[in-house]
Amino acid sequence: MDDNSNDKPLLALAIRVAGIAGMAAMAALIKLASQRGIHIAEIIFWRQMVPIPILFTWAVMTGGIASLGTKRPKAHVVRGLYGVVGMVLNFGAVILLPLAEAQTINFSVPIFAVLLSIVLLRESVGIWRWSAVAAGFAGILIIAQPGGGHIPLTGALVALGGAFMIALISIQIRDLSQTDKPLVIVFWFAVTSVICSAPFQPFVMQGHSWEDWLLLLGIGLSGTWGQVLITVALRYGKVSSVIVMDYSAIVWATLFGWLLFSTLPPATTWLGAPLIIIAGLIIAWRERTLARKRFSDQRQAAGT
Q1: 110, 179, 233, 259: least buried by Cβ within 10 Å?
Q2: In which domain, by residue range, is 198 found?
Q3: pTM here?
């Protein structure tokens, strides 16, 4: 069967956009929940508790409980611990910053991925990716304006820390994906996160109104919706093709920021955002080019 028989690029792009919209909606709900006094530790707990029965039921219906099994529990625990740190930082950025600025700084993930590939994977990086890294950090400096910007420097640093953790986790997920399916990875991440955040609940959990409970349920559902659709998009399109849709998050973040919080990004954000987005696109293009070259070299070496 042709390896490209499942390729449906337009469908993949549409699904990816819907998934990104789900993640943006989750970010907006997290900000609303924080403004209503709900502690970040409780937000994390319910964000990960809600998907567990959904994912478990789906697994039972499609492949049985055995489909959630893994031979790499230690790797999942490490991924889960890193993921909890990442959630604290990324949720903290959403709470501390306007939605559009938090999302824009989050676009620096590919930049950190390049730096981590040098340190952890010993990859050589050429002029294209180094130029992208420089442009991306220039965009971050324009947005954050250290010492005199419209956003708190602490919030900008938290957002950068969150982007770094996503890049680090991406390397872990790439490794786990060689042996485990996406459903297994997401399920055990949720379980690990709940176990890690549960001990804090007696100290932070409080009585909630029905509106608060709807917010917490919405955070869990929109986050699950986003995660699942972002993953499903890869069934119908290549990463290098659909990843461009991730930048639609700035549109959703700006829309939710305007509708729910009456905030719009200032000029500095619109100046810095294109630099970060262009940097990410250059890195994605270069990764695709290098992957094709490696594949071609392997075929030639095999004599095909």
Answers
A1: 259
A2: 9-302
A3: 0.82
